[in-house]
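Need a sequence for this fold. Nothing fancy.
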């Protein structure tokens, strides 16, 4: 039996009459790379904010790492990592200051912060840059550093919100190598993206269209189901089907 670490049941978020996420139901397994795909405005970030305990649902429910999103939001936050599209770093602090700061935020002891800081600096090859301001680093390095501090406390799940937005294809692929390494360590990866080619890197993906989950399966199975050569074609078929329903 696969261990379920994220479970939602008809999770819904409304803003007035606008339905941002419409009764989405799915499960994510331990160590899985789960892609949450869709165009900008499809409801991906809204769903992620609810799962992270940052936004209260309008209706429906969910458990994250075994904790209820209504009753145990603080416990959820202690068991997850989070990286936003803007990388969540302080650009006016140095590399080492950022690592130590986030280590403290995630509740690590002084000894653990010292050990983790040294390990991260070596792993990322940033020894010469450790005392430089983060704002002076190239975008790719900021991205790798932000991911590293998001998992510095070895969380059960890490939520990545459009983590490769605005970076070149080579840097994007290098970032996915970091994701694979974290997954191999047992960390569950929940990643939102609008890059359809990145779906190929995920174990399973869900596809959001206008707040609704229109598909959920492996990339290979989805391409077979929709007789498509790429995930772009799958998404096009789903979007076209949604438009026909709306008309």
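Here you go.
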């Amino acid at each position: 039996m696969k261990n379920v670490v994220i479970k939602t049941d008809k999770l819904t978020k409304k803003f007035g009459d606008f339905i941002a996420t419409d009764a989405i139901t799915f499960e994510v397994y331990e160590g899985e790379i789960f892609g949450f795909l869709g165009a900008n405005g499809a409801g991906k970030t809204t769903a992620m904010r609810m799962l992270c305990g940052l936004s209260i649902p309008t209706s429906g429910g969910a458990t994250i790492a075994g904790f209820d999103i209504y009753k145990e939001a603080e416990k959820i936050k202690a068991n997850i990592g989070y990286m936003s599209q803007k990388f969540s770093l302080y650009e006016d602090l140095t590399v080492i200051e950022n690592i130590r700061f986030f280590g403290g935020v995630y509740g690590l002891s002084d000894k653990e912060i010292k050990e983790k800081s040294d390990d991260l600096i070596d792993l990322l090859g940033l020894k010469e840059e450790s005392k430089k301001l983060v704002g002076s680093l190239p975008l790719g390095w900021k991205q790798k550093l932000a991911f590293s501090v998001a998992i510095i406390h070895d969380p059960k799940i890490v939520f990545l919100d459009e983590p490769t937005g605005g970076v070149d294809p080579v840097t994007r692929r290098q970032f996915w190598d970091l994701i694979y390494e974290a997954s191999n360590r047992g960390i569950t990866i929940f990643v939102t993206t609008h890059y359809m080619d990145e779906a190929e890197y995920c174990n399973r993906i869900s596809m959001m269209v206008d707040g609704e989950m229109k598909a959920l399966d492996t990339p290979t199975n989805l391409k077979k189901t929709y007789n498509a050569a790429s995930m772009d074609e799958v998404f096009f078929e789903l979007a076209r089907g949604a438009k026909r329903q709306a008309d």
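For context: The longest helix spans residues 169-184.
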